[in-house]
Amino acid sequence: FGANLLEPPTAESVSESISARTRDCCRLLFAGVEWDRKGADRAITLVAALRSRGVDAALDIVGCDAPAGRHLPEGVRAHGFVSKATAEGRARIDHLFRASHFFVLPTRAEAYGLVFCEAAAFGLPVLATRVGGIGTIVRQDVTGALFDIDSPADVYADWLVPLWQDRPRYENMARAARAEYESRLNWEAATRRVVSLMRAVAADSPSAAQVSRE
């Protein structure tokens, strides 16, 4: 499958964005419509874990609002649902992806996760759980990292901090994420793969062989 982006960012603009990312604050992006299942609270605890290690961090939560009565700590903003159906919504999502350093989604359950393809389109290394089909998208220590579903925030932070402190390594991973988008995490590549599989199956079927003889 591929990123559901009406106007995907160009390779050149993403390359420039990666080089221009500032180091004053580690900006995390979370995008999901279900607060509990997608693990918003887990993403919030990662901010605290990073700050305890001396890394200034901030988190933008897109797609859902905090539960009633839930106080968000300093540096965490919930933007609610942002629609891709409007030009304003698409521009806002584009800005949030470009302004971030990492995409974080410690989801408890996931069939696949098109949003990981979208993170790759913007060159964002991913931190996610090892559930469902996420492992077919994120390449461990190449385009991000996958964690056990019960891993605490400290484990995420232990992986993220050394990468954050190594600018060349971070940029290499960000560019590797974009390269994955260009090679396989887009709809054109997905379509080519499906067509290739269908042709292979058809070629091996007795009915296909009969048609070719006729």
Keywords, please?
214 residues, alpha/beta, 6-stranded parallel β-sheet, 6 strands
**Protein structure class:** alpha/beta
- For the termini, the CA-CA separation is 36 Å
Helical content, roughly?
A: 40-55%
Q: What is the CA-atom radius of gyration, in angstroms?
A: 19 Å
Task: Please state the average pLDDT score.
Answer: 92
Number of helices: 9
* Overall outline: globular
Major sheet: 6 strands, parallel
| Strand and helix order | HEHHEEHEHEEHHHH
Tally of strands = 6
Strand order of the largest sheet: 3-2-1-4-5-6
Describe the overall structure.
The chain is α/β, with parallel strands linked by helices. The protein has 9 helices and 6 strands. It has helices spanning 11-20, 35-38, 40-52, 87-99, 114-121, 153-165, 167-183, 187-204, 206-213, and strands at residues 26-31, 57-62, 76-80, 102-105, 126-129, 144-147. The chain has a 6-stranded parallel β-sheet, with helices on both faces. Helix 5 links the parallel strand 4 (102-105) and strand 5 (126-129). Helix 5 (114-121) crosses helix 7. The chain is globular, with a radius of gyration of 19 Å. The two termini are 36 Å apart. The model has no long low-confidence stretch (mean pLDDT 92).
